[in-house]
Design brief:
Number of helices: 5
Strand content: 35-45%
Structural class: alpha+beta
Number of strands: 9
Protein name: Antibiotic biosynthesis monooxygenase
Largest sheet: 8 strands, antiparallel, barrel
Helix content: 25-40%
Strand order of the largest sheet: 2-4-3-9-6-8-7-5
Organism: Streptomyces osmaniensis
Keywords: Monooxygenase, Oxidoreductase
GO molecular function, one term: monooxygenase activity
């Protein structure tokens, strides 16, 4: 049985050995809503496909054209078995309901570290996805870079109150880092970016070190709103 849930995913759950993120381009806000509903209906009509899938979550992009998908798998082998047996029928039904979806890419990650106050029980109103790409020669320094980011966050004397958490993932391709950051609202994140300093955080040595890290190639920031959660019933 498949059921919908309003609960946000737990990015730190230890049994999620293979967290995946993918992006679809659907074109318009109306098609965003139609695709979310098509996904929900398609999955609810079928049994939960695998004990290896812990949860599947969909988010609408604030760019008014994309969807973010986050799936939590016990292992990559569980995902590959799903692809062989259950994925295509779901894709076909969704594409019949909303033709012309462009599936941009699927990225495979491993959770590395998270930062949040243990007493913070706020429900995030905005998910900010920060994707960082490193040169291949700097792939081994990604963990150290994340450690430096968390050090800068934790030493910030005046953190923006709208930030809730950050969950850092390392791409299995060897070059990517993804931060799944939870914010109170999109406006809180916009205000934080507009504050003094270059990006989140004040103009301090810790942040300068992060921003000028050797081998850091590029970064992108995208904002999303939680739209659909699917879990085993």
């Amino acid at each position: 049985m498949t059921r919908r849930t309003d609960a946000h995913p737990d990015l730190t759950r230890p049994d999620a050995g293979a967290p995946f993120f993918s992006t679809w381009s659907v074109g318009t806000p109306l098609r965003q809503r139609q695709t979310v509903e098509a996904i929900g209906a398609t999955w609810e009509r079928r049994p939960w496909p695998s004990d290896g899938l812990l949860g599947y979550y969909v988010y609408t992009g604030h760019d008014a054209s994309t969807l973010l998908h986050h799936s939590q798998w016990r292992s990559e082998q569980a995902y590959e078995a799903f692809v062989k047996t259950h994925r295509q029928e779901r894709v076909d039904e969704i594409d019949t309901a909303v033709p012309g979806i462009e599936r941009l890419r699927l990225d495979r990650y491993r959770h590395y570290r998270s930062v949040r106050r243990p007493d913070d029980t706020r429900v995030p109103g905005c998910i900010v996805i920060v994707e960082i790409e490193f040169e291949e020669s700097a792939a081994d320094s990604r963990r150290a870079w994340v450690d430096a980011v968390i050090e800068a966050l934790e030493s910030e004397p005046d953190p923006h109150p709208g930030g809730i958490s950050g969950h850092f993932h390392l791409g299995t391709d060897g070059t990517r880092v993804l931060n799944y950051a939870e914010w109170e609202s999109a406006q809180a994140h916009i205000d934080a970016l507009a504050a003094p300093g270059d990006g989140i955080g004040s103009a301090r040595q810790q942040w300068e070190r992060v921003q000028t890290w050797p081998g850091l190639k590029s970064s992108t920031v995208s904002r999303y709103e939680y739209a659909l959660g699917l879990t085993p019933g």
